[in-house]
Structures are given as structure tokens and as C-alpha cells.
């Protein structure tokens, strides 16, 4: 079948994305409190070359320059996150007006250029004071503190911001924080707490959604999930069951809560037998169901697909293999859960230097699955390529990124033809930024930032070839790829 060249839907939001800790810097300015990440990065060897977000790419001071570049690009939406500790330095209590004013100024600057602001309430940085006070996400108190923080932002910015995201990649920050010790709070294999933490996050999400619908009735709200659609290794039934196990444990465990307000039966039954189901209060199910009924879209952060194969209960691989954080291709180890699944490499796909599969078709697959299972509009809240970029004579020739983005945009257009309702496509990221565990070497941006791991570089911005390519895509509404 020959796919006709099509435009994306009218008013489609071509965008870019960022996160507060990865771009802002100014980590102790204007009354901001410390976050869990401000503390975690000071533990030696937790990040590449012990990099921090103290300065990051200085977006806090350069946001006007960056948004002017976004306007030159023709951007329709800018997705950014708010640092909770900039609003409530202690996580609760007194509001920091300077922090609120910064984000209102950021929103106003976007609107000045006709760029739709898309606000993420939580992109992994909790106020450190709440961790100290009661253990942060491990304690039920966090639900009401998060809801109060969310209401504060809804009331201040709700007249100006239409699109809101409650949480970014809940599956990632909880897995890396309580199972792999790679993110704060740095706990290893704390399975009981992992599932309890996730329930607290789910309740915080639900209460925020319900409050939002009262305060911003005409707005749109959802959550952004790091979705890796899965393929069975082959048609051997035990590998097909491994795929189903993976989906239930790693995707639907979160997405079903957002869209249906309930946990998938297989996973709950499995956890119940192991004594790992989270404790729930009497009205939790009612609140979750009510919030799910009001969800406006499903956010998808898509980077790669995954393969699933049978994993023996005895002698199988575990979930704790080495992760590639240095960009040395081939250093990622196969992981899995004994008795359920393992995730071998896909022999049909190329990978990045960080061993992430490059699979544009997986984005189409992801959209189709969300559409069929949840019947919700979709926000592609992140998609992009991390690579080693080279600045030569003020230019960055990143044709490999253009190839990557072109194929993914084409897959998105195919998904639209398939009947998927897609609101936006946000490239990760607009500028280069701090890549959490990977430092500044792993560059995602359409705009190059002159900085390395040590502080002191110029921070000058340089438009990459991909910037000019994306500008043409936006101006043609996806016709010219």
C-alpha cells in the first residue's frame, strides 16, 4: 500500500521538551529549596564524571534567548517542567513568590510568540525537605502535599496554560529509585516499597486531576509514560506469554491506572502471591476511577521498543544487569525477571551508542496500542536521539538525528492515517541539556550548547542542521520531511 503524503491535523502542536533540573540551573537562587537531585548528584560516581544540574544550561537566566530561538524555529508548543522546590522550598507551607513569578514569566514569553506552553508538574525532582521530613514518596503524606502544590500552579497559571502533565515517566523514576539504586533515593531491590511508592504517586496523580477539573475546567490534563512497546522474540508460545507478562508488569501496570483507574488483574494477582501489593485506603479505588474518567490524553515518551523472551525461573537473568551510561556501544547487559520474561537485543534493529534500539515503527505501534486499548488522544511528549555531536566552525552536522526524526515523524503520520488522534509531537530536546546519569556528553538538542562536564564554558547556543530541518517540517505541517 502506498502511503499518500499527508499533512498532520490542523492545529497540530509541533513542539520540543525539557525538564527543570536538566536545563534551568540557578539551583539555589531566588529562594529555591534543594531537591533530591541536588543532593544525589553529590554522591561520588552516581553520574557521569560527577556532573550536576547546579548550572545546567542556564535556562533560568537565558529563557528569553531560548524562547526567541523557539519562535525562529516556528515551534507550536514548548513542554517544560516546574521545579516543586522553586515554588515550595520546604515542599509545603510558605509559597516562594519569586519561583512562581519565574514560571509565569516563562509562560508569558511563550505566549508572546504564539507558543502553547505545556506544563509538567513533576519531572523527578522532589523537594529534599520532604524526603527529610517523612521519606518523600514513601509516605502517604506526600499525596496531599503534591495536590496542594498542583493546586497552587493551577490557580496561578490555569488561565494561561491549557495543557498539563501530572508526572513524567513514573515507571522510570520509581524503578531507578527503588529497584536499581540509579536515581534518588538510591535504594536497591526494595520491591515492597517500590509498589507502595507507585500507589502514592498514582493517588497524587488522581487527586491532581480531580482538582484540575474544578480549577481549570476547560484545560487538558494527562500523564506522560515512558512506553516501550514489546515484541515476542518469535512465535514460540512461551515467548508470546513472556511478552504478555512484560506488558502487564511494565506498561499496563501504570497506563491502566491512568486510563481505567484500576490495576491489571494478572499483575495484582502475581504481587499478591508474593506479598507485594500496596496498601490502599478505603476510598482509593473510588478516587482512581473518578480521575481516570476525566483524563484528557495519554502522554507517551517514546525512544525504543523491546523484545521479550522466556526467562527460566532458575538460572534466568535478573533485573540488575549493567546499564550503559558512558556511550560505549554493546555494554548493556540483558535483564529480565526469572519466570516471567527477559529482554534480549533485537537482531533486526540498529542501536544508538547507548544501546537503545532505533525503531520508528515502534512509535506507530505504540500509538495504535494506546488508541485501541484506551481510546484516548495522544500527546507524544518526548522522542529524540541522544548522540555525540561535534561543533566545527560554529556548525553541527547531525544528519543522523535528522534521519532518526524523519522516520519517527513519518511513523506518526502513518499512525494518524491508521485513525490515531494525536495532539502533539515534542522533540526531546530543544537545547542540549544534562542527561541525568550521562552528563553533557549525550546530546539530544536541536540547539547545541557550548558546555562540557566541567563548568566554565560559554553556554553559547548554536543551531544544528536538525534545527533547520525541523523548521521546514513545522512550516509544512509535516508535508516536507
Structure characterization notes:
This protein is 39% helix and 13% strand. It is α/β, with parallel strands linked by helices and 481 residues long. It has a single domain (13-475), classed as TIM Barrel (Alpha-Beta Barrel). The strands form four sheets. It has an eight-stranded parallel β-barrel with strand order 1-2-3-4-5-7-11-12, surrounded by six helices. A two-stranded parallel ribbon has the order 6-8. A two-stranded antiparallel ribbon has the order 9-10. A hairpin with a 3-residue loop joins strand 9 (336-337) and strand 10 (341-342). Helix 7 (141-157) packs parallel to helix 9 (191-215), helix 8 packs antiparallel against helix 9 and helix 14 (360-374) packs parallel to helix 15. The longest helix has 25 residues, at 191-215. It comes from Propionispira arboris. This is 6-phospho-beta-glucosidase.
- What's the CATH topology label? TIM Barrel
The largest sheet, given as strand count, sense and whether it forms a barrel, is: 8 strands, parallel, barrel
Widest sheet, order of strands: 1-2-3-4-5-7-11-12
Structurally, how many domains make up the residues? Answer: 1
Contiguous runs where pLDDT drops below 50 for at least 5 residues = none
Amino acid at each position: 500500500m502506498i502511503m499518500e503524503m499527508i499533512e498532520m491535523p490542523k492545529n497540530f502542536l509541533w513542539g520540543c521538551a525539557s525538564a527543570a533540573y536538566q536545563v534551568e540551573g540557578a539551583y539555589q537562587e531566588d529562594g529555591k529549596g534543594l531537591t533530591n537531585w541536588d543532593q544525589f548528584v553529590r554522591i561520588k560516581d552516581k553520574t557521569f564524571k560527577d556532573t550536576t544540574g547546579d548550572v545546567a544550561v542556564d535556562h533560568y537566566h537565558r529563557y528569553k534567548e531560548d524562547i526567541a530561538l523557539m519562535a525562529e524555529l516556528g515551534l507550536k508548543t514548548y513542554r517544560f517542567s516546574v521545579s516543586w522546590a522553586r515554588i515550595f522550598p520546604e515542599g509545603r507551607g510558605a509559597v516562594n513568590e519569586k519561583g512562581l513569578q519565574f514560571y509565569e514569566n516563562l509562560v508569558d514569553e511563550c505566549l508572546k510568540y504564539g507558543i502553547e506552553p505545556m506544563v509538567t508538574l513533576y519531572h523527578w525532582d522532589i523537594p529534599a525537605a520532604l524526603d527529610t521530613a517523612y521519606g518523600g514518596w514513601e509516605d502517604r503524606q506526600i499525596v496531599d502535599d503534591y495536590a496542594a502544590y498542583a493546586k497552587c500552579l493551577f490557580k496561578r497559571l490555569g488561565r494561561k496554560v491549557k495543557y498539563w502533565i501530572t508526572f513524567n515517566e513514573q515507571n522510570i523514576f520509581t524503578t531507578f529509585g527503588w529497584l536499581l539504586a540509579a536515581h534518588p533515593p538510591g535504594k536497591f531491590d526494595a520491591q515492597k516499597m517500590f509498589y507502595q511508592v507507585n500507589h502514592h504517586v498514582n493517588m497524587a496523580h488522581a487527586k491532581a486531576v480531580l482538582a484540575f477539573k474544578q480549577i481549570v475546567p476547560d484545560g487538558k490534563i494527562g500523564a506522560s509514560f515512558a512506553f516501550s512497546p514489546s515484541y515476542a522474540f518469535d512465535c514460540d508460545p512461551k515467548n508470546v506469554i513472556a511478552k504478555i507478562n512484560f506488558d502487564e508488569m511494565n506498561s499496563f501496570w501504570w497506563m491502566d491506572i491512568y486510563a481505567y483507574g484500576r490495576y491489571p488483574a494478572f499483575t495484582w494477582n502475581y504481587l499478591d502471591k508474593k506479598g507485594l501489593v500496596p496498601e490502599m485506603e478505603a476510598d482509593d479505588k473510588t478516587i482512581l476511577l473518578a480521575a481516570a474518567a476525566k483524563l484528557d490524553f495519554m502522554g507517551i515518551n517514546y525512544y525504543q521498543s523491546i523484545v521479550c523472551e522466556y526467562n527460566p525461573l532458575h538460572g534466568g537473568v535478573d533485573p540488575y544487569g549493567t546499564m550503559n551510561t558512558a556511550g560505549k556501544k554493546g555494554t548493556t547487559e540483558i535483564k529480565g525477571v526469572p519466570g516471567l520474561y527477559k529482554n534480549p537485543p533485537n537482531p533486526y534493529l540498529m542501536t544508538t551508542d547507548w544501546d537503545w534500539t532505533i525503531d520508528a515503527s515502534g512509535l506507530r505501534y505504540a500509538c495504535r496500542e494506546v488508541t485501541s486499548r484506551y481510546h484516548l488522544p495522544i500527546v507524544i511528549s518526548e522522542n529524540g536521539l541522544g548522540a555525540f555531536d561535534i561543533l566545527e566552525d560554529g556548525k553541527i552536522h547531525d544528519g543522523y538525528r535528522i534521519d532518526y526524526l524523519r522516520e519517527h515523524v513519518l511513523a506518526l503520520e502513518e499512525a494518524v492515517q491508521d485513525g490515531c488522534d494525536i495532539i502533539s509531537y515534542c522533540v526531546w530536546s530543544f537545547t542540549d541539556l544534562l542527561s541525568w546519569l550521562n552528563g553533557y556528553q549525550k546530546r539530544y538538542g536541536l540547539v547545541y550548547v557550548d558546555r562540557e562536564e566541567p563548568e566554565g564554558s560559554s553556554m553559547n547556543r548554536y543551531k544544528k542542521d536538525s534545527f533547520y530541518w525541523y523548521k521546514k517540517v513545522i512550516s509544512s505541517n509535516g508535508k516536507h520531511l
